[in-house]
Amino acid sequence: MIFICIRWVFFVIKCGFLYDKIFCRVLLFELLFLILQKNFNSLTINIKKNMVNYKDLGLVNTKEMFKRAIAGKYAIAAFNFNNMEQMQAIVQAAVETKSPVILQVSSGARKYANQTLLRYMAQGAVEYAKELGCANPEIVLHLDHGDSFELCKSCIDMGFSSVMIDGSHFSYEENIALTKKVVEYAHQFDVTVEGELGVLAGVEDDVVAEHHTYTQPSEVVDFVSRTGVDSLAISIGTSHGANKFTPAQCTRDANGILIPPPLRFDILEEIEKEIPGFPIVLHGSSSVPQELVAEINQYGGKLVDSIGIPEEQLRKAAASAVCKINIDSDGRLAMTAAVRKVFVESPGEFDPRKYLGPARDTLKALYKKKLENVLGSAGKLA
Ligand code: G3H
Ligand code: 13P
Ligand code: ZN
């Protein structure tokens, strides 16, 4: 304002010298400058207008819910979604169990469903939850496995309340530099950031790692303090997909059922000692329920040696500083089992609602069980 006043004082003084050619030119420049400044201001306003803040959509970041989850010894579920039925199942399960929940979008989901549509679906999820009777839903819209600053920025700019920057495949120093850059941008908008240290075995964002590189407890203080992340994904033996362990890595019980090796709780404990009370995240935490695998195979599927993380181990993790547990594959199995069943039992059926509907119901039932019996987040809305 002071700046504008001074400019106008000069303007009036210059008017007194209008007869002078030089001042005439200066005046012309002055007017040009004012026009440019006005246009620049409206351009800035437009850029800001195109940015959507998640708070305006009714979404929340992870800060408060993680704090409560650690204190209350439970974990928040992060379920991936790619379409309307998955989103409906997640919201219905969260509302019916009174759980905070994280709606998770991978780069693959963005490619499959269109990022704009997914964002509007998440905005719709908040309204849908209210319509289902939850007055104050706690829903996070989170980018899963963001692999670049540009991708994280684009999500933040379009209304995500949380992002993961997964620099775990880079060198330690590169991981720190990239994660710090994302944190600096995200925190301007109160968006929370998850980083990752250590590499999960299996396929992670098209990158295949044959063996786990467990998180080194000696690195976590340095990583967390230098990056400023809000939560840390660690590697203690979980992995993505429905075949988390090879039969050679497992033992068999009396009935020949594969028993996976236990997670490395010793590493988790060491990490907790290094960064007490800091939010820890577990990826690759599907349990691969054997009844779903059997159902898929009964109806023509061919899943071989599928095995996941036993639920008791996830319960134990949820009671520690692990406050976010990622589950995607179990949802895929549940939907596939339901769809296959309809196709086999009603081969004449061709209305998508007749197979996607049962798939959605099966998914919701699975999610409710997870929230109530495994993660312990039921009834934990603020
Ligand atoms: O971590 C990976 C999630 O399961 C997402 O998988 O990239 O196939 O969507 P996606
Ligand atoms: P699952 O493949 O075990 O479901 O893990 C999902 C995940 O970690 C998403 O980031
Ligand atoms: Zn993951």
Summarize the structure in words.
This protein is an alpha/beta fold and 382 residues long. The protein has two domains: 2-12 and 20-50; 54-375, Alpha-Beta Barrel (TIM Barrel). The protein has 14 helices and twelve strands. It has helices at residues 2-16, 21-50, 63-72, 84-97, 107-113, 115-131, 149-157, 172-187, 217-227, 265-274, 290-298, 311-318, 329-345, 352-375, and strands at 76-80, 101-106, 139-146, 162-165, 192-197, 202-204, 207-209, 231-234, 251-252, 258-259, 280-282, 322-327. It has an eight-stranded parallel beta barrel, surrounded by ten helices. A two-stranded antiparallel ribbon has the order 6-7. A two-stranded antiparallel sheet has the order 9-10. Helix 4 packs parallel to helix 6 (115-131) and helix 7 (149-157) runs parallel beside helix 8. 1,3-dihydroxyacetonephosphate (13P) is lined by residues 80, 144-145, 240-241, 283-286, 326-329.
